[in-house]
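Open question from group meeting: does this chain pack into something compact, or does most of it stay loose? Before anyone orders reagents, we agreed to write out a predicted structure and look at it together. Recording both the input and the output here so the notebook holds the full record.
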Amino acid sequence: MIKINVSQNFKKAKRHRKYRPNLMTMKDVIVNREFSERQAQDREWLLQNTWCDSCKKADLGMEKPTEFALNGKIYLSGFCLICGHEIKSEIIE
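Structure tokens returned:
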């Protein structure tokens, strides 16, 4: 058995630290999908019905949409038309 001498301050600081799991693991694979293959009215609806965390408002619109799948769920990512911050939404079909 190996003993390591650790100061009391380090032990105290370590105890109060919250564990943050890594959200992406090696098993998680992002699969790009073609947003342009959706029907025109579906694309229009998805681009208009958004939520921007930065603006704290709904239905501001999205530009540069990217559709992808992660862990069996489909997401749409793009940028808010008002402030330009990134928006991510889960698409439930």
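Observations to bring back to the group:
Strands lie at 30-33, 51-52, 57-58, 62-70, 73-80, 86-91.
The longest strand covers residues 62-70.
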